[in-house]
Amino acid sequence: MGSSSPREDRRAASQASSYPVVLELENHGESDMEVWLEMVPEGVILAPGHRIQLLARPDEDLLPLDIARTPKGWVIHAHRSFDPDWHVRFKGHLLKPASPSRLADFEDIEGDVWAMRYPLTQAEAASWLSPASPRAS
User: Fold this and answer.
1) What is the Cα–Cα distance from 96 to 71, expressed in whole angstroms?
2) C-alpha angle with apex 126: 11 to 56, nearest 5 degrees?
């Protein structure tokens, strides 16, 4: 499978931005927290204070999620969905996790970054940062 074009990347980002939020996480600790998605090397590393929303392709076999604690964070599995196409919303941007994606590397970067970072509309970012948003405990 070859690399995708910028047009395909934008189409995938547009589609992923409509995925439902299936989990919100915030690192309240004093050290990095690792979140691994399935058994493939897709993961994100949250520094203290980082907050994310986890999005996945709608699928009747997606929920309930299986969430397991590890010494450094969490491992998250879809219920029976084979490929949930995980994405993470972080500070108004949508990221396709790599192996792993350190969120601190994306904090101060403006615009698109490789095909892994997609800007949201101002309204989407504002709704995510709303104090009324539910939070993971």
Assistant:
1) 24
2) 45
Q: Which two tokens stand for residue 88?
A: 């993470």
- pTM (2 decimals)? 0.73
**pLDDT tens-digit readout, 64-96:** 999 999 999 999 999 999 889 999 999 888 888
Residues 67, 58: Cα–Cα separation, whole Å: 18
85 conformational bin, left if phi > 0, alpha if psi -120 to 50, beta if neither? left
**Residue 105 and residue 40: Cα distance in Å, rounded?**
21
21: β partners: 55
> Which of 80, 76, 40, 88 has its CA nearest to residue 63?
80
The rounded distance, in Å, linking the Cα atoms of 70 and 60 is 27
Helix extents (H) in the chain: 6-17, 122-128
* 101-129 residue pLDDT tens: 899 988 876 543 333 333 444 454 444 44
Residue type, 13: A
